[in-house]
Amino acid sequence: MEEIKGSHGRRRKGGLVTMPFIFANEVTEKLAVVGFNTNMISYLTSELHMPLTKAANSLTNLGGTASMTPLIGAFIADSYAGRFWTITVASIIYQIGMISLTLSAVLPQLRPPSCKGDEVCKEADAGQLSILYVSLLLGALGSGGIRPCVVAFGADQFDETDPKQNTKTWTYFNWYYFVMGASMLVAVTVLVYIQDNIGWGWGLGVPTILMFMSIITFIFGYPLYRNLDPAGSPFTRLVQVLVAACKKRNLPMVSDPKLLYQNDELDASISMGGKLLHTKQMKFFDKAAIVTEEEKHLKSGQTPDLWRLNTVHRVEELKSVIRMGPIWAAGILLITAYSQQNTFSLIQAKTMNRHLTKSFEIPAGSMTVFTMLAMLSTIAFYDRVFIPVARRFSGLDRGISFLHRMGIGFVISILATLVAGFMEVKRKNAALANGLIDHPHSTIPISVFWLVPQYSLHGVAEAFMSIGHLEFFYDQAPESMRSSAMAFFWLAISFGNYLSSLLVSMVHKFSAKPDGSNWLRNDNISKGKLEYFYWLLTLLQVANFIYYLCCAKLYTYKPLQIQKKEAGSSEEDHGVELADRV
């Protein structure tokens, strides 16, 4: 671990003291993203006059693209720049995008003219949309550098080889998500209120100013950070193992795994937290570590041709990534279900009675406050109550494994979409009973609080599923690929948004009838069958949960040989730590 020399001696870098500087960056990024995305469908339909399904698909496509860019940021961080500099540069790019986005909301010529009453609204032209999308693209590129790196960078501040710190990593993920959720809560209340009641200029200008302040704060904390050097392109290493295994595909497998190639010096930069041990699965890739007669003559310290010969550690890196794939894929559909809160659930809320008093009306976009509150309450309960109780029965420091935690999240998400369908039936019956089924712009006399259960259940599901997902990727990914592992988390979100767009388009197309009826009506959701769409999502999630159970049952945790340092001792104790890390 790196150390700093100061007037009071030597002090280790990293630890809890770095959290305020790291969290400041994450908080403002979430204020900016959530503050706009939560209410974005209102902006696209009311300000840019887009049709509902086009606006919904634009929103999920944008979310999908923004969630793919972390692959780029993670690659740069793991291969060349390191996490600190990747976060810093990405934050500056994000700042430029936010300034541009704020200007597009302030300047009237960058939006179509407003319309009143029954007047036909003019949709935004190509030029106006292009300015909007360029601004959002800059924001997406900035997010791509922040999202995968900031969570891994924060976890890096805790040394896994230090007994005093190695149990703080999983606690960090809980509180990272808590802080992120708290900032999202502010976004869906304060910022959405500003957007709806004061204007989009201020609604976007506030997070833009905060983003600038966070960049300064994050850079100011540089002397305190524990910075891990990039270890070269992880994707190149994976490809090298694959190529080497293919070249040696005709060689017979060695009788003893101990005969496979090992080189601690070569792997030193990519195994600082521990060396991966050989596993019996996917034996084909072991051929990349078979030493041929020609390769036996390599001199001590000589680097082999990595396109023909790789170490066991590098082979196991590839195996670890492949093993994570099925678990990763199971999380996609949960994001598809979750994303409906910012599309159809929001449109539901807009048709219902949102008055708290005669003079105050809850913005429809702020309904996700119940998701945030449920998520934050669940995280606090989980960390302070559930874990200590579960620890007594399981013997695990984190209470239950991240695979069990994710499974609980899947079940609750299924319940959320099931409930959403029944709430839609109730909303439509209220519209029919009051003769408002043909009046899409009239307020149905049914309280918007009937939607609280579906919003809250999604929040509880996220507290279990998303944090479990983060823990899974960080813990099970090779150490040198942890930024990339965090990118896989965001990639699942990306695919979930794209799948939502595909599902909406397919349902809209195949449920259409010659009389103009449709499950997802653009003009009037009360005359559609939105409840069928929710129940279709429920059935898909049930099938997905069965798939997940099979994957979790067959999953093999990565075996890791780590070096532990006892407190107050410089001696190293070498030991194998397996599934007990879960």
TrEMBL record:
InterPro entries from the xrefs?
MFS_trans_sf (IPR036259), POT_fam (IPR000109)
- Which topology term describes how it sits in the membrane? Multi-pass membrane protein
Question: Which domain of life, per UniProt?
Answer: Eukaryota
Q: Which Gene3D superfamilies match?
A: MFS general substrate transporter like domains (1.20.1250.20)
- Give the principal location in a single coarse category: membrane
Q: Name one Pfam family in it.
A: PTR2
GO MF term list: transmembrane transporter activity
Is Iron-sulfur one of the keywords UniProt gives this record?
Answer: no
Which is one Gene Ontology cellular component term of this protein?
Answer: membrane
Per UniProt, the keywords (alphabetical) are: Membrane, Transmembrane, Transmembrane helix
Membrane-crossing segments per the record: 83-110, 131-155, 175-194, 201-225, 360-382, 402-423, 488-512, 532-555
Annotated localization: Membrane
Q: Which family does it belong to?
A: Belongs to the major facilitator superfamily. Proton-dependent oligopeptide transporter (POT/PTR) (TC 2.A.17) family.
Name the UniProt record assigns to this protein: Major facilitator superfamily (MFS) profile domain-containing protein
